[in-house]
Design a protein that fits this description.
The complex is a heterotetramer of chains A (306), B (498), C (278) and D (316).
Chain A lengths: L1 H26 L6 H4 L6 H11 L5 H13 L13 H36 L4 H15 L2 H15 L12 H30 L2 H8 L4 H38 L5 H10 L3 H29 L1 H6 L1
Helix pairs in contact in A: 1-12, 5-6, 5-8, 5-10, 5-12, 6-8, 7-8, 7-10, 8-10, 9-10, 10-11, 10-12, 11-12
Chain B lengths: L1 H16 L10 E6 L14 H7 L7 E3 L5 E3 L2 E8 L2 E6 L13 H12 L8 H4 L2 E8 L2 E6 L6 H5 L7 H7 L1 H6 L7 E7 L3 E6 L12 E6 L3 H10 L4 E3 L3 H7 L6 E15 L9 H10 L2 H8 L4 E2 L23 H10 L6 E6 L5 H13 L3 E6 L2 H8 L9 E6 L10 H5 L11 H11 L4 H18 L2 E13 L3 E2 L14 E2 L2
Parallel strand pairs in B: 1-10, 1-11, 14-15
Antiparallel strand pairs in B: 2-3, 4-5, 5-7, 6-7, 8-9, 9-10, 11-17, 12-16, 12-17, 13-17, 18-19
Helix pairs in contact in B: 10-12, 16-17
Chain D lengths: L4 E10 L2 E11 L4 E5 L6 H9 L6 E10 L2 E2 L5 H7 L4 E4 L13 H7 L5 H14 L5 H4 L9 H13 L5 E5 L7 H18 L2 E6 L2 H7 L2 E6 L2 E7 H6 L4 H9 L39 H5 L5 E4 L2 E3 L9
Parallel strand pairs in D: 3-8, 3-9, 6-7, 7-8
Antiparallel strand pairs in D: 1-2, 1-4, 4-5, 9-10, 10-12, 11-12
Helix pairs in contact in D: 3-4, 3-6, 4-6, 6-7
Classes of the chains: A mainly alpha (306), B alpha+beta (498), C mainly alpha (278), D alpha/beta (316).
């Protein structure tokens, strides 16, 4: 087990390194941000002077090594545009994305998993048909469209919720639901399959033969067994939620790192973009790792091997 | 890092639970801007949103009044001792927010700081004609320029005075996070990407500020800014589109404020490469664009016609220069004469520019026989190509130009003077005129030079002035404020109507 | 979900065919030129008609262009981008997967580690980043979508190849003297086509969404060329006054993606019973 | 005397086909009754029907089950739940599959008592001890994967009997186990039936097992009972050709006892292709035109010995 974790960590490190490298060079494909920073009337000499001062006239390899060197010292550098430490900029936006991702995850879990269970337990009935339509919708709805429709319906027409921005807890509702819809669908599908598979097992019949109700058998035995494959997707979906936040935060003007990423990409604020991608990838990788470890928490068979 | 993370989470929680009471009488002003400040150090970024916020925390050496005239602020008076030396007399009763006095040393320090290449200020190019700044008396500072520089005063309007001792103590990075100036408001809190909150300095030297506190919120979505205004969550919003403004005009709980700015919407026409190297094609393009319907239909009237690539808010604008009339028949004939019928014309653009304007112009030129290909690229690539060789720059592009100096020198010089990175045009006669206008401080002489330069541009058409851009704001009817052409956003000039 | 051609599936197939036909026949069935503007007819609601310009069944956009025509042409963009980018990732991913599964050893380690790395960056983030930086264009869009989405095919092709390569008839073919390329293409590829097709179908729906998403962010199909995403992006500014600009293209997008997803589930149940319903 | 369990004229349908048709039998307290047949003959469905735990696809349209004289078919599901485990329980073919891999042994045994393990711990320990699990104090907190197959079946038996039900349905309880373990489990069941007076319905395909522990036996073929009577009587003189063939295929004791019934030529027809008349006719050496036309009903051929064969007397 320990060797396994060590191997996974090494893989994660390599993946992270590749990500850093790809993003570093992709960002520099179309040149540096000097032109975006200078006032309109600047002359060629003034532009060259600022470029030199910012260090963008150095060879790419030198810039790359410099960046790696800084990273090795846990220094994410300073934002060119905001002239503040990158960690400070990202950290000040991070709580918003965490709140949004958490909201979306909670929504997806509290709707998706019961929906999946219901679809499995009441299979073949009206409940299943209604719920699978809902799941299909969640899976096929483009967030930018459902986002606008929600704004139109609940914000503009009904005035129930603020149209966008981070203005009180109510403003978290719409973006969470919109962002969580896809994860909800994934959880529901996964849960349905998993519960269906478990419902067919002998231990369910055995438990009922001991006098447990169907509900009790599901709660006491089926759910825990069905949870194992679901846990995997939950972890993977958290990564997807962070990525999906790019569009949802743009639609809802939510001041998280997704919005920051878009702003920084367009402003060529290299270090901020790199830090965000680095962060998201590391979360992604860490979640994958955590999933594997979560198995052992749920399943005593694997715990035994540890 | 961990500590600040916790703080940040707490801040979100606080913000999420805060209730914005809309009850009157209000002592707070809430402003919706399109974006958060990039920096609050006034000597770094100068985008409109940062500018709108930090200018309220600092005093400037000079400023403009509502009419656009340059007037004293920290300086009380100034005089040239020769063409390159300018002496400023300063006020002595100004205090920074920590109670220390604003001294000539602070002024000299502010000038030297922004022109120091090591400071890497994006604003450097606006001030790099300054050769030095010395304290020459207990209330006096003397600036020297590298050569006679008529636009100096206009540039100094943008120079904020920062406290020398405080900046040196904190260092540049921390000063940007905890800025302090001598202006009517001081920073209370900055939630990055969300809002900046300022508190009034009750004993400010120009009088008691009109609001106890001001909140600048970053609301990127236009419709949301409008919703905020309607719902009373915001008192003043910036960046209304003409369509929105038109729709809001009829509403009673909202007032639309607009002002023509010094920003000119223009179309660049490449005079050195491609089909547009032929002056007949360029003139045809000038006649093919129906500027009247751009203003009425696209801008909903929120724009003013201009006769040249310059606005009436700029020094040097001349209303007597006659623009080319809208005449598609004549334009088509000219294009035929030039043998350019059906010619492919590239129109470079980036997402920054108004998509509708691109597409409308494309259609208008198609109507006179030119096949316009819109080439969308990212902004850095666009700038690189537009500023590159004449062949790279494409035949056409649109732009909105503001030098923030309200002077022809900041517009037609960089746009059309040979050798300038923007210019894809070369006419020695024009160069002579704009060079001469730059070399003297005599306003009458400068005006004459600019008139001649504008006449040359009219004949050569290296660019077409489309309209004077109008800044549009939405406000509560109770808010008293007159927006200005330089898009300054001084809270000191606003008040609740009694 | 039973593996027989039910009524529901027939309807779905019919809808997909209708969408494809609309995309294919857009130039002939559009009531107007999708690029023809009329500044006097901006933001007209659905059903508006004028004597000179005719009927605008779904209204007009902010430059007075016919929305229905733009949506029909937009279907074209969606299909072409999705087909091309799925092809790119299918080819790249399958080749790499085949190579990894056939040669094993270092080749496989190298390829599969790279797959892991690719899968550890959210694809949409990478696509947004790359397109934003390189600058949006049709070719960029197809390549970026194609080249960020191949790892899923590689994983499937790798696993399937490993499995098929162990079967006796492959050994027989090898002994008969067939070279690697021939075995891979003639014997292994047909045997792993099923699972790859299942992945390709589900990816097809995703690609349609990605294209629309990137166009919505201003990073996809560039105006004035019509794309569902860019129509909605422009329409967002007018959401209060011109709901039709966001509602109709979104409805088209949503319906098409639903159809493709249902189709994908159905195919999966038929071709890949082990992962039924997943 | 009221039988502990009586099944009357049970008919089960899958789609339109009667997979179980007219099955009825009774078991007395302390008696072991074996239900024998090839796989697919409906014996396992019968067991599930008794527990009212039929899969969704199976429908019962006739017959009823009486437990100690109480008709179970009139009970609601809620009332039925009180019957399961307390008055009647069931054990299964694959003990490891029948235990939740993620719950401890003790927790699952305790479920039979209706109270949580914390309260039922002493009872559970005693029960585990009673079914012959060594070191129950350690085993109680272990997971099924830590136990051998035989031990799992003991756990199953413990969980089924802890509430002292009058009836135990044992669905192929030894099929998945090693020969030696098989014998131990059968001994255990036998002993419990005697000590506790539990009526046991033992479902099996193995005539060897029947010979070992059953007092009485009912032989099922294609959803119907072919022959029923005392084990000794049937083994001595089968009155149905099917039973005769089963017994003929049974190896002598010294041989491997896990013989399969498939040694009979031909195979059981699928429910959709059940013939009219005797369902065994297709494989029966004695079949004639009458067998193929008329369904033979169960009739008493000797005291307590019933056979559904037109040629019961001719069977050798």
């Amino acid at each position: 087990m320990r060797r396994y974790i060590a191997r996974r960590l090494l893989q994660a490190a390599i993946a992270t390194f590749l990500v850093i490298t790809i993003v570093f060079f992709v960002m520099r494909l179309s040149g540096d941000p000097t032109l975006l920073l200078v006032p309109e009337g600047a002359t060629a000499e003034q532009i060259a002077a600022l470029r030199h001062a910012l260090g963008f006239d150095r060879p790419l390899a030198v810039q790359y090594l410099g960046y790696l060197g800084d990273l090795a010292h846990f220094d994410l550098g300073q934002s060119l545009v905001q002239r503040a430490p990158v960690w400070l900029i990202v950290a000040s936006r991070l709580p918003y994305t965490m709140a949004l991702a958490a909201g979306a995850l909670v929504f997806a879990l509290v709707t998706g998993i019961p929906a999946g269970i219901a679809m499995a337990v009441w299979r073949g009935g009206v409940t299943e048909r209604l719920l699978s339509a809902l799941v299909l919708a969640g899976q096929s709805l483009p967030t930018f469209w459902s986002g606008i429709l929600f704004i139109l319906l609940f914000g503009v027409s009904l005035h129930w919720l603020p149209t966008s921005g981070a203005d009180g807890p109510a403003s978290l509702v719409m973006p969470s639901v919109v962002l969580g819809a896809l994860a909800m669908a994934t959880f529901a599908r996964m849960t349905r399959i998993s519960v269906l598979e478990e419902l067919g097992r002998d231990y369910v019949t055995a438990a009922r033969a001991r006098g447990l109700s169907m509900g009790a058998a599901v709660v006491r035995h089926v759910l825990r067994n069905a949870a194992i494959p679901v846990v995997t997707v939950v972890a993977l979906e958290v990564g997807n939620l962070l990525a999906g936040a790019v569009i949802v935060e743009t639609v809802f003007a939510w001041p998280g790192i997704g919005q920051l990423a878009m702003q920084s990409i367009f402003a060529r604020d290299f270090l901020v973009v790199q830090a965000i991608v680095l962060f998201v990838s590391m979360v992604y990788i860490a979640l994958n790792l955590a999933t594997d470890l979560a198995y052992s928490a749920i399943d005593p068979r694997i715990r035994g091997m540890a | 890092m961990r500590g600040s993370r916790v703080l940040a989470i707490a801040a979100v929680a606080a913000c999420l639970s805060a209730h914005h009471a809309a009850a009157q009488p209000k002592t707070e002003l809430t402003v919706d801007l399109a974006a958060d400040a990039a920096t609050l150090d006034p000597q770094l970024q100068w985008d409109t949103d940062s500018y709108s916020i930090y200018r309220n925390m600092f005093d400037n050496l000079l400023t403009r009044d509502v009419a656009g005239k340059i007037v004293p602020q920290v300086a009380t008076a100034w005089h040239y001792t020769n063409d390159t030396t300018l002496v400023f007399d300063l006020r002595t009763d100004i205090k920074f927010h920590d109670g220390t006095k604003l001294t000539p040393e602070d002024v000299a320090f502010s000038v030297k700081r922004i022109v120091d290449p090591a400071f890497k200020s994006p604003q450097l190019s606006q001030f790099d004609q300054i050769a030095g700044a010395e304290v020459t008396g207990p209330a006096q500072v003397t600036l020297r320029t590298k050569s006679p520089y008529p636009a100096l005063l206009a540039q100094l309007v943008k120079l904020s005075i920062v406290p020398k001792a405080y900046v040196e103590k904190l260092g540049d990075v921390r000063f940007n996070q905890e800025p302090m100036g001598s202006g009517p408001y001081k920073l209370r809190a900055w939630q990055r990407g969300v809002q900046v909150t300022l508190d009034a300095m009750p004993d400010y030297w120009r009088g008691k500020p009109p609001f106890a506190s001001v909140v600048f919120r970053a609301v990127p979505d236009g419709p949301t800014r409008i919703a905020d205004l309607r719902a009373g969550r915001a008192d003043l919003i910036r960046g209304l589109s003409p369509d929105d403004a038109e729709a809001l005009k009829s509403e009673r709980q909202v007032r639309v404020l607009s002002v023509p700015t010094e920003r000119v919407a223009y179309m660049f026409v490449n005079a050195l490469a491609g089909p547009t190297a032929d002056v007949r094609v360029r003139r045809a393009i000038a006649m093919a664009v129906d500027r009247e319907s751009l203003i009425t239909a696209l801008q909903q009237g929120f724009a003013k016609p201009v006769n040249e690539v310059l606005t009436p808010a700029n020094f040097g604008y001349d209303a007597d220069v006659k623009p080319w009339p809208f005449d598609p028949v004549q334009a088509r004939a000219l294009i035929k004469a030039a043998g350019a019928e059906g010619a492919k014309i590239s129109f470079l653009t980036s997402p920054v520019y108004d998509r509708r304007l691109n597409e409308a112009i494309q259609q208008m030129l198609a109507d006179v026989g030119l096949q316009v290909e819109i080439q969308m690229m990212d902004q850095p690539t666009y700038l690189r190509r537009r500023q590159g060789t004449p062949v790279e720059a494409g035949a056409l592009s649109q732009g909105r130009w503001s030098c923030a100096c309200q002077d022809a020198d900041g517009v037609i010089f960089p746009l059309f003077r040979s050798g300038s990175i923007w210019s894809k045009y070369s006419n020695p006669a024009f160069d002579t005129e704009v060079d001469a206008a730059r070399a003297t401080l005599d306003e009458a002489v400068r005006k004459t030079h600019y008139r001649r330069a504008l006449d040359i541009l009219r004949e050569d058409v290296p660019g077409v002035g489309l309209f004077q851009d109008v800044a549009i704001y939405g406000a509560k009817p109770q808010l008293k404020w007159t927006p200005t052409a330089n898009e300054a956003f001084f809270v000191m000039d606003m008040a609740w109507q009694p | 979900m039973r593996p027989r051609v039910s009524f529901g599936i027939r309807v779905i197939v019919l809808l997909i065919v209708l969408f494809a036909a609309a995309a294919l026949l857009a130039p002939w069935i559009s009531p107007h030129d999708p690029l023809r503007q009329s500044l006097l007819l901006r933001l007209k609601p659905p059903g508006s008609a004028t004597a000179s310009a005719g009927l605008f069944p779904l209204g007009t956009d902010d430059l007075g262009r016919d929305l229905l025509s733009r949506i029909l042409y937009g279907a074209r963009a969606s299909f072409i981008v999705a087909i091309l980018s799925v092809s790119v990732s299918l080819v790249v991913g399958t080749l790499l997967g085949l190579a990894a599964g056939w040669f094993r050893g270092w080749t496989a380690t190298l390829i599969m580690r790279f797959v892991d790395a690719m899968l550890s960056v959210p694809a949409i983030l990478l696509a947004v980043l790359t397109v934003a930086v390189i600058g949006p264009s049709f070719v960029t869009l197809v390549l970026v979508l194609g080249l960020t989405r191949w790892p899923r095919y590689t994983r499937v092709a790798y696993a399937a190849t490993l499995q098929v390569a162990g079967l006796p008839f492959i050994a027989a073919a090898e002994m008969a003297g067939a070279d690697s390329a021939r075995i891979l293409l003639r014997h292994i590829l047909p045997n792993i086509a099923g699972p790859l097709l299942v992945v390709a179908t589900s990816e097809f729906g995703l690609m349609i969404l990605f294209e629309a998403g990137l166009s919505f962010l201003g990073l996809g199909i560039q105006p004035p060329a019509p794309s569902w995403g860019s129509i909605m992006s422009a329409g967002r500014q007018y959401v209060e006054r011109a709901w039709w600009l966001t509602v109709f293209p979104g409805l088209g997008l949503f319906t098409l993606v639903v159809c493709v997803n249902v189709m994908g589930d159905w195919l999966r149940d038929r071709l890949d019973p082990r992962s039924a319903g997943r | 005397m009221t039988p502990a369990l009586a099944v009357h004229d049970l008919r089960l349908l899958i789609g339109g086909a009667a997979v179980v048709d007219g099955v009825g039998f009774a078991v007395a307290p302390g008696e072991v009754m074996a239900l024998v047949g090839e796989s697919g003959c409906g014996k396992s469905l019968t067991a599930h029907a008794i527990m009212r735990l039929l899969p969704d696809a199976v429908r019962q349209d006739r017959g009823y089950v009486a437990l100690d004289g109480d008709n179970l078919s009139v009970l609601s599901e809620r009332q039925m739940r009180l019957v399961r485990g307390r008055r009647m329980s069931m054990i299964f073919q694959e003990p490891q599959a029948a235990l939740d891999p993620l719950s401890t042994v003790g927790a699952q045994v305790a479920e039979g008592t209706g109270s949580p393990l914390r309260q039922a711990r002493a009872a559970v320990l005693a029960m585990l001890d009673e079914v012959g699990i060594a070191d129950p104090a350690r085993r109680i907190d272990q997971y099924p994967f830590e136990l051998s197959g035989g031990m799992c079946q003991r756990v199953m038996i413990a969980s089924a009997l802890i509430a002292r039900p009058a009836v135990l349905i044992a669905d192929e309880p030894t099929t998945a186990l090693d020969v030696t373990i098989q014998a131990q489990i059968l001994d255990l069941l036998r002993r419990l039936a005697i000590e506790r007076g539990t009526a046991i319905v033992l479902i099996t395909h193995d005539m060897g097992v029947v010979a070992d522990i059953a007092d009485r036996v009912a032989v099922m073929y294609a959803g119907r009972i072919a022959e029923t009577g005392d084990t000794a009587a049937i083994f001595a003189r089968p009155r149905h050709p099917y039973t005769a063939l089963l017994l003929a295929a049974l190896p002598r004791r010294t041989d491997v006892p896990r013989s399969r019934l498939a040694v009979i030529e031909g195979r059981v027809p699928a429910p959709s292709e059940f013939p009219t008349g005797c369902r065994f006719a297709g494989r029966c050496p004695l079949a004639d035109a009458r067998c193929r036309a008329e369904t033979p009903l169960l009739r008493e051929v000797a005291r307590g010995h019933l056979s559904a064969c037109w040629h019961a007397e001719a069977v050798r």
